[in-house]
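Hi P.,

Sorry for the delay on this. The queue was packed all week, but I finally got your sequence through. Input first:
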Amino acid sequence: MTAKRVGDRRLLKLHQWLEETIATAYKIEPVAGDASFRRYFRVTTSAGRWVVMDAPPEREPLRPFLKVASLLADAGLHAPSIEAIDEMQGFLLLEDLGSRLYLTELNDSSADALYGAAMTALIRLQQLQLSADQLPRYDAALLQQELDLFYDWFLVRHLHSPLSAEFNSTWQQGCQLLIDSALEQPQVVVHRDYHSRNLLLVEHHTPAIIDFQDALIGPVSYDLVSLLRDCYIDWPQPRIMAWFEHYSQQARQQGILDASTQPQQLVQWFDWMGVQRHMKAIGIFCRLNYRDHKAAYMADIPRTWGYLARVMGQYSELQPLWQLLNRLYIREGGCASLRFSVD
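Then the structure:
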């Protein structure tokens, strides 16, 4: 096979494992991967089709994936079933969920139904009652670590910004506001990357859910803003807020949100959680570009920055930080039109 000719040692090991596991002739082809060190292949035989995950154990241990997959299955959610495991080598043979990502299936006609299904699944995920030791906490240190990705990789590495003492003071004040907002929310199971590239339209039990291994216990608004203010697809604000209201009603009915929580408080949690997530995402996109040589994600920064512009200018508490950020972005070559996206 080609892989053997080019000397890909892990792929050689994967072929050896597949030959032992499937024990029949097969065809293998790469599947588009994610932003991690994992990679995926579709395996086809005369008896069926699967997806195999190659997760180098020293970089992407399988234990978190296996643990969360079990939790999702217990909740009645559609995670890929696991057909075979070699945890030591980092190989998984998984149910093939197809290739109909939400990202390619969403349009004006399909969006209400697809987002409705995704929010129903999200409610079910958030209803999981877990003991304190089953998943890590989305604590203040981790929230700050994610914000630091934006500072280190976007502001410093990408924009080459000279950051003053005034900026750093305003930055820390803004970060603390976002962290406090996240921690004061009801804490639920958080997928942590619940968006159109990790949800699939399948024949039965849509959506199928992937890339869930980083799940935590964290803010109730996190996955919702990840879904509705997606870094890879955007929608008019009135439509987003209609979906937000639909979710809010379901969440209240299921006891995820307290009936006494004021609607404006929910909106602020949603907005401010989005600011934290979108800063993190921009930092990750830059890190993928500069460290991992995955430049394609840079094209998603303008959309993601637009979410920051739309939200931060609406809140007086966040305006000092936003004014400094926008000034840096414009001065260092960002898209000048984003100055007007708050309208």
